[in-house]
Amino acid sequence: MINFNVAKCQSESQAERFGLHDPQDGGAAYIDESGQVVWNCVVLNPAAFPCVFTAIDHCIEIVDQDGNLKRSCDGMLTYKGHVILVELKHRGSDWISLGVDQLRQTTVLLMEGRNAADFRKKLAVLANSKHPQFKFGHQSTMEQFRQETGFRLLIVGEIKLK
Fold first, then answer.
1. pTM of the model
2. Which residues pair with 13 in a beta bridge?
3. Which CATH number does the domain housing residue 117 bear?
4. Is residue 2 assigned to a domain?
5. Is residue 71 part of a domain?
6. Residue 13 structural domain
7. In a domain? residue 142
8. Tens-digit pLDDT profile for residues 29-53
C-alpha cells in the first residue's frame, strides 16, 4: 500500500477561495492563495473547511515491480473524510483521454489495501487551464469511470466543496 500522507508533498488552506497550480517546469502541484500564478483549477470553499492538497506526481514516487515510474494524477485534495483526485492540464488537444487515464490509474493505487468506506465521498476532477469553462458532454466517459473505479468523474475548472 502506497503512503499518500507525505508531509513534504502537502499544502493546506482554509480559505473560502483558492487555486490549485501545477507548474509547467516539472515541479509538484500545490495550493495557491495569492493568485500570482495561473490557477489550473479554482476551489470554492464557502464553509472554510480545512483542506489538504497532497501532490502525487513529481512528489510521491510510485514505481512498478520493475522499478519503472507509474503514471499518476497531479494530486489529491482531502477534507472532512472526502477525497478528490485531481489532474491539472495545460494543453489543448487530447487532454481528456490522457487525464482520465491518469486519474483511473491513481484510483487503483489509492484504493489498494483500502476500503471504499474509508472515504465519505470519492471524486476525480480533470481540469484544464486552457479550457476552464469546458462545456462538452462526456457522460458516457464519466459513467464508465464511475463504474470502473467507484469515483465520480467531473471535467470542470472549478471544485465546489460542500
1. 0.93
2. 51
3. 3.40.91
4. no
5. yes
6. 7-160
7. yes
8. 999 999 898 899 999 999 999 999 9
